[in-house]
C-alpha cells in the first residue's frame, strides 16, 4: 500500500501542475494609455494574474524622488558585505540613501530585502546571517524615514548564490542583500 502511495503522489503532483499550466492564459500585448487625470492605465485583458500585476507595476513606475544625482544609485539594487559581517560600507550607504529618498516620496512602493551569504558555514547559521543582513538594510531605511510597511526582510542564506564558484571572488559576490521592488519601482529613464 505504501508503494502505491509513493507512485501515486508524483503522478498526482504532475497532473496538478499540468492542469495549472493549461489553465493559464497565453501572453498578450500590454497597452498603456493616459487617463484624463494624468495617471497611467494598462489594458491587461488576456494576461494571467501574475503578468497583469507585473504590467501594472511597470506602468506604475514613478519618477517622484528620482533625481539626476541619485539615478546611478537607484539603478544599483545590491549591497555587499564582508565575511561574517552585517556592516554597511560608505558606498552602500549612498545607494540605500537614494532608495530611502525614493521610498519616502512614493508611499505605494514596496520592497523585499533578500539577505544572502556565501557557501561557508552551516545552513542554519547562514539563514540567520542572511536575516541579520536584510534587517541591517531594513533598519537603515527605517531610520532614514521609510515606513516599515513598505519593507519586507527575507533570508535565503546560502541557498541562492549568484556565483557558483568556490573561491573568494565568488563568495564576495554572494554576500549580499538584494533590493527587489515589488510595487512602484523607480522610473530611471
TrEMBL record:
This protein's record includes keyword Protease: no
Location of the protein in the cell: Cell outer membrane
A cellular component term, taken from the record's GO annotations: cell outer membrane
Alphabetical list of Pfam families matching this protein: OmpA (PF00691)
Membrane topology (UniProt): Lipid-anchor
Record keywords, A-Z: Cell cycle, Cell division, Cell outer membrane, Lipoprotein, Membrane, Palmitate, Signal
Signal sequence extent: 1-24
Function: Part of the Tol-Pal system, which plays a role in outer membrane invagination during cell division and is important for maintaining outer membrane integrity.
Subunit-structure text: The Tol-Pal system is composed of five core proteins: the inner membrane proteins TolA, TolQ and TolR, the periplasmic protein TolB and the outer membrane protein Pal. They form a network linking the inner and outer membranes and the peptidoglycan layer.
This protein's name: Peptidoglycan-associated lipoprotein
Gene name, Swiss-Prot/TrEMBL: pal
